[in-house]
Amino acid sequence: MVNLAKHKREGRIRRHNRLRRKIHGSSDRPRLAVFRSNRNISAQIIDDDKGHTLVAASSLEAEIRGSGVKGVVAAEKVGELVGQRAKAVGIDSIVFDRGGLKYHGRIAAVANAAREAGLEF
Fold it and tell me: Where are the beta strands (DSSP E) in the chain?
């Protein structure tokens, strides 16, 4: 008998590895990586050449967590926050990494909010 949760996770990791062969963040265009758990969502802007996280935001941060928002609304706030922080550091253009997940729901909400905050991808 196959453990369904383990099987689904392995499939997502396989899709993510397939994506990562094509997507690479550089100093000019860093990678916006999104991670979604059952309750929370986080986003990081990563320079893969140096191996450094330049900017990060998460739904676990006090300003998002304290407001009591959840789901897609929290994801939109995370996208907006990561976009604002990226602009403050001087990042305008990025590559989007959906992490092997469907571009739908919370993942799409982060991407759209980051675009509205001024990031180009």
Answer: 31-36, 41-47, 52-58, 95-97
- Any idea what the CATH number is for the domain that residue 51 is in? 3.30.420.100
Q: For the segment 49-60, what is each residue's pLDDT rounded down to a tens digit?
A: 999 999 999 999
Domain carrying residue 73: 4-116
- The number of C-alpha atoms within 13 Å of 108 and in the hemisphere containing its C-beta is 4
- Spatial CA neighbour of 59 closest among 80, 88, 32, 84: 80
Checking if the pLDDT of 45 tops 80, the result is yes
Counting Cβ atoms within 10 Å, is residue 62 exposed (0-12), middle (13-18) or buried (19+)?
A: exposed
Rounded Cα distance, 89 and 67, in Å: 26
**pLDDT at position 1:** 59
Q: Is residue 121 part of a domain?
A: no
As for how many domains the chain has, the answer is 1
